Amino acid sequence: MQGSLFIRPIEARLYRDVELFRKMDPYCRLTLGNQTVKGTICKKGGKRPLWDDIFVFGKNEPTYVLEVMEKGTLTADHTIGVCEIDLQEVEEEGNVLKWYELHYKKKLAGEILLETIFVREQESPKTPLVYVGRKLVEKEIVTGHLAQKVAAKHLISYQEKNYRKGKGGLLNVPKPSENNSVL
Questions:
Q1: Which candidate among 30, 32, 61, 121 keeps its CA 20 to 30 Å from the CA of 67?
Q2: By the 8 A CB rule, do 16 and 109 touch?
Q3: Which residues pair with 35 in a beta bridge?
Q4: Top-tier CATH class for 3-165
Q5: Among 63, 34, 52, which Cα is nearest to 128's?
Q6: Rounded to an integer, what distance in angstroms lies between the CA atom of residue 90 and that of residue 107?
């Protein structure tokens, strides 16, 4: 089914630490078909990173692969954990907010909270878009995809309004506070 897929990694609980002397700098890398997009790095996020990314893809595959990576300082980036997400549930429900298990070499490496939204459309983007807050990170990709830009900005502004009101994120994920912290 044609449409746009909005994928928002919110937070992770990582059990695997690939850094010996300092906190990890994790980021998400998503692959849908032959498209791979890297999100922003959560500097010193350690085992409890939080992200503010929204990835926008045209749905053309039944599953996507999400990898949580650690940005190497002097070495190559390391894989912390990987999960494969079946999009059938997202297509049926429209909105899914769910914890997914991350695995590394067939062992549990952590969990990640993802919000995935599927919007049915006539034309979906050929290349992925990445939003961080209100800033479009990959501007050259946007040409011809005004609908996806507007939808992502709408989702972001809706999220910010709910955070200001203390209602949480897109699907009422609790806002972090001193008493109710996600860390």
A1: 121
A2: yes
A3: 32
A4: mainly beta
A5: 34
A6: 26
Instruction: Give, for 65, the enclosing helix (H) or strand (E).
Output: strand 63-70
Cα 166 from Cα 121, distance rounded (Å): 32
C-alpha to C-alpha distances, 1 to 93, 114, 127, nearest whole angstrom: 13, 21, 17
In tens, the pLDDT along 54-97 reads 988 887 788 999 999 999 878 899 999 999 999 888 888 888 99
Total-model pTM: 0.69
Q: How far apart are CA 119 and CA 58, in angstroms?
A: 10
Q: Give the sheet arrangement for strand 107-120, strand by strand.
A: 35-38, 26-32, 63-70, 78-86, 95-104, 107-120, 3-14, 53-58, 129-132, 135-136
Q: Which tokens hold the place of 31?
A: 């692959």
